[in-house]
Amino acid sequence: MTGKNVTLRLLDKADREILKLPRPVKGAIYDFQHKFKTNPDSAGLRLKQLQGHDKLHSARVNDEYRALLLRLADDDWLIVSVKHRKDVYAHLDRLTYSVNRVTGGIEYVDLQVVQEEVLAPAPPPSAAPAEPAAPEPLFAKWSEQQLTDLGVAPSLVPVVAALTTEDQLLGLVEYAPQLTGEVLLALYDGKAYDDVLEQVTAPVAVPDPVDPEDYRAAADRPATIVTTTDDALREALEGEDFGRWKVFLHPTQAKLVTRDYSGPARVGGGPGTGKTIVALHRVRHLVERLPAGRTKPVLLTTYNKNLAADLRSRLLALGGEALLSRVEISHVDQLALRTVREAEPGNRKRIVDEAQAVREWRSLLDELGEDGWDAEFLHDEWTQVILGQAVTSRTDYFRARRAGRGRTVSRAERAEIWQLAERFAQRLDRLGVQTWDQIAERAAQLEAGRARRIQDIERLREEAGGLDNVHVADGSGGWLRYRYRHIVVDEAQDLRPAHWKMLRAMTAPDRNDLFLVGDTHQRIYKNQVTLGSLGINIRGRASKLSLSYRTTRQILRSALNVLGEETYDDLDGSAETLAGYRSVLSGAVPNLHRLADWADEREAIAALIESWGEVPHEQIAIAVPTNDMAREVAYALRERGIMALEIGPDGPLGDSGVHIGTMFRFKGLEYQRMIIAGVTDGLVPRAGVRQRRATDPARYRTEMQRARSLLFVAATRARDSLDVFWHGEPSPFLKELIEVRPPAAA
Questions:
Q1: CA-CA distances (angstroms) from residue 199 to 154, 210, 218?
Q2: How far is it, in rounded angstroms, from Cα 596 to Cα 728?
Q3: Fewer Cβ close by (within 10 Å): the C or N end of the chain?
């Protein structure tokens, strides 16, 4: 056999299996694939057909590990697994592979692993209780024929028949082919058989009859997810930046990407369910259906520049420069600032952040001798009510809605607040500064005015008999029109009301105009909005993703405990839940560490990272409550010779080292190993929040919910492991976790 044109592919389940292997073995696999493509018959590879299998072969990776390969054609091979040599030959009759007759894709299953990991009996109890009634199998009501007609892998039907718990089901989903998992979860969630057939199976079924012996054709069908190129193979084998999975689309997500919506639509779901991936593919879908012409007819936006940069790199990986050339990618504050400066080129005031604005409020109150008002309360009132509702007069403020603000204020107090707000705005103007809230509100006003002028033009055109002979210059040499044909928003829960008003005005109300993804359980700012009140009606066009492809079940359960019994909105006036949110991955339970003081925490963290050996430092992250704590942890690591990178507003400040930052900084990121430190009462939540419990109960609840969300976000950045540290009294949010799993000894 000549090796000149040998094709070697890697099955998707295999690369996830390889990620768990020691780093030297991953390197050996990368060397192996080069040698195999050069000459599969090389004596050192020891390629041989496995007994009892006509297509399955094994080849030597190194002294300890063997690759299992399907021979698709003479010079076309598919790696389906990499195992320790002692595990390859022990259960040859339990290795199954076939072409699924519904999807036409190749499916490989190690029934021995499934049996051990999914259906292994629990250890016997210490005392023999009364024998309980045998549990009802989860899928007893469906026949073998029905399950295989839906696309369940035939080799797994006996296993499916034996499932009795959700944990067993989720364990099977981790090892099962993609469609099998999707079908079983849909049935388990109560969907009718015909609905599963129509909504889950039909979209991935191939129209032509499937030849079960033609593995070469099966390898080229969409249902067989493989990696082929050298770069993609290296990325999959090393698994250091999750590159492939950052743009990989699962079947349930694909339906949301290609759906035709009659207006604005929203996709929700917990961390790791692929919301951002759906947003990226939605952008590509929209671009592909637009005619050539306008340079950038689609806007992709999110709430900060770090995430916008990540979206850009992922969109480039998905569609290349050709796709990027037709998409405007900008974080929403940058977009607002550009809009304002385009219309008002003389507006060059310095911009201050929220913390600086609150300090200016305190200075104003001190100068006026006012001690009856709280600076943070006044700032929130100014941003959320006065700016948020575009209130421009005292009379309008008396009539303004204050839903969700908690503390009621009398008419006399409103008069005082209005006077203070006017003085505050004058103070900022005198200092030559402005806030991001002011910029967002001004941009919203400008875009709303632009939209009204466009609508006036359209009315004139209709009155002129539909002739395209009415034009108005936009002041920049072009003709007035909406800025974008489609707008896609990532992390929608963290945008301000003014942002939404601006975005609504930037695209014409039409089919597929706005596509939003987000999860209000991950809201880390105070921007609670009701989209319907801002002209964005998503009723009937909201969907939810429920399967996490990043975080293990064990970490997910702990993270959900952090949220407690809090209720969250759905961006449209109703409640949002994570009911049905689950993970298809399994791993170790989170580790809890109680230390005597903050110095001991830092030392313990450094020792833990040293114990992890070959884990790439860029795949380790440490989240802490404050910037000062981030700097102190970074210093402690460097003292031990561990490279550390602090995460700033623009992302990690360097290329190599452990990532360290406040919990705010980790939104949208993910790591193999996550450490959350300083989870101490008084820090999480901060002490000031507790003090509001009696004086301002509504604000107390909002701040507590926000603190829970921050901890939830930090915990769900983890893929493989989560370690939580604290000193002194633990955060009250850890109460249930500590009761279930006591901390390790210091």
A1: 21, 21, 23
A2: 6
A3: N
Structural tokens at position 665: 């900084």
CA–CA distance, 685 with 730 (Å, rounded to integer): 10
Distance CA 463, CA 174 (A): 61
Locus of tokens 């700032």: 379
Enumerate the β-bridge partners of residue 65: 84
**Tokens at 310, concatenated:** 């990540």
Count the residues in the chain.
746
Tokens representing residue 262 in the block: 């009659």
Name the most confidently modeled range: 198-212, 289-303, 418-432, 678-692.
418-432
Whether residue 657 contacts residue 643, with contact meaning beta carbons closer than 8 Å, is answered with yes
According to DSSP, the residues that pair with 489 across neighbouring strands are 301, 516
User: pLDDT band at 131, cuts 50/70/90?
Assistant: low
The torsion of the CA quartet 469, 473, 476, 480, rounded to 10 degrees, works out to -70
Residue ranges at the known binding site for ATP: 269-276
Type of residue found at 142: W
Burial of 686: CB neighbours in 10 Å, binned 0-12, 13-18, 19+: middle
Q: Amino acid identity of 615?
A: V
The answer to whether residues 716 and 560 touch, using CB atoms and an 8 Å cutoff, is no
Q: How far apart are CA 78 and CA 36, in angstroms?
A: 11
Contact 731, 680 (CB under 8 A): yes
Q: How far is CA 112 from CA 55, 60, 96, 159, 551, in A?
A: 19, 21, 10, 11, 25
pTM metric for this prediction: 0.81
What integer pLDDT is reported at residue 654 of this predicted model?
Answer: 72
- What are the binding residues? 269-276
Residue with tokens 């809009």: 339
Query: Which of 517, 526, 520, 578 lies closest to 547 in space, CA to CA?
Result: 578
Q: Crossing angle, helix 178-188 and helix 251-258, to 10 degrees?
A: 80
Give the model confidence (pLDDT) of 393-407 as tens digits: 999 999 888 866 667
Q: Which residues contact 738 (CB under 8 A, 6 or more apart)?
A: 592, 730
Dist. CA 246–CA 240, nearest whole Å = 12
Q: Which DSSP category does 744 fall into? A: B
> What is the rounded CA–CA span in Å between residue 270 and residue 521?
8
